[in-house]
Write a structure and sequence with these properties.
The protein is 18% helix and 33% strand. It is an alpha+beta fold. The chain has two domains: 191 residues, Sandwich (Jelly Rolls), CATH 2.60.120; 234 residues, Carbon-nitrogen hydrolase (Nitrilase/N-carbamoyl-D-aminoacid amidohydrolase), CATH 3.60.110.10. The protein has a six-stranded antiparallel beta sheet. Strands 15-14-13-12-11-22 form a six-stranded mixed beta sheet. The N terminus is likely disordered.
Length: 453
Amino acid sequence: MQLKHIILTCLILVPCLFASGQDASFRRMPAGWSAESPREEIAPDFEYNLKGGPDGNGSFGISTDNRSGSFGWFEKSFPVEGGKYYRFSALQRTRNLKQARRTAVTRVLWRDADGKRVQHDFESTASYGTGKRPRAEPEFPAIVKELDNGWSLVQGVYLVPTAATQGIVELSYRWEARGKVEWAQVSLSKTEAPPARKVKLATIHFKPYGGDSNLEKCELFEPLIADAAKQGANIVVLPECLTYYGRGLKYVDCSEAIPGGVSTEYFKKLAKKYNLYICAGLLERDGRLIYNTAALVGPEGFVGKYRKVTLPRGEIEEGITPGTEYPVFETSFGKVGMMICYDGFFPEVARKLSQNGAEVICWPVWGCNPLLGAARACENHVFVVSSTYCGVELDWMITGVYGRDGQVLSQAQEFGEVAISEVDLSKPLIWSSLGDFKAQLPSHTPAEKRRDD
């Protein structure tokens, strides 16, 4: 209580008195809000600006000078009705921050009438604590939109545990020196349940023997794509370098423009014909450079491409050039990223795709340790869909769908099979003790050290 009084008196009331002779910009915080910090010695500076925010109706602000390691937050308890959905919403603006994702953090905590923690009403399906009701850990609303006025929209929709009667909102500033965070238009209000986003993820287990041209290789996949479509697939993943497989040629001999080459044009027609998305591993020529590329096409046409970032020595020796970007593409069902084969050995690729918003990562892969596929899915809480040339007898890479906890949801056993799984992208995976781990990744992932730090 003493720390709380010091913070409120010195950092809320003093600015108010100081500014009163000029204007009434600073006043006591709105009812129910308080300023908090674990210890007085690391408390940052708090303020409430009556005329702050993009609408001029007030804003909360936390800042520091040169004191690194400062940590504090604004807090308010909102009444909630258990068993109902609630939407958290706020506008946020940051200044002079190098690691805004770690420094400006919003949380919502569910508590009962006595302020005690509560449990969720469902049993966890995650690989840890399966079948047990997990404790309701903090929720982490995310930035969903960057606004033109310099502010960002932070939101999240949550099912309140039945035992909860209050949602405690925290607007926090963590650790970084010489920065500032502002929040405005903060609310926690009842809303409708979000619609389910059920998606069927499919992958093809196939060695395309035969075919003397890029087009003929691609044509070998149509029966299996048709099979996936018949099963209701929204997206189907094909293997790596499929036009190169079994031809005895060099990579450069099988390369073509992407888009515009015969392979992407052909798969575009199939995507429209079968009303699904296709991720195909191809070889791309761009001027004098050759890339190992995954192309994504859909009913609307060419969607985008990913150039393999990590290259094994065989590809380096044949003159393949590595990519440098981690694009994520919006489809009719969700956000899709791609990686290729050797990328799976390195956590950075899947992490970058996840940070860029990927909900599903398509993975054309010649061969890799299947445990790394599970790791890439689990550590990022994304669905990973792999398509390989390895047979199950090798006990190596699989053609299958990995769940967000790394468990294999479906796997092809024979060549010529389609593996398919239905998932719900709207439903977070809740772990015992961890909660919604994916939502915590932005604020908990280590900061990258910069030269000017």
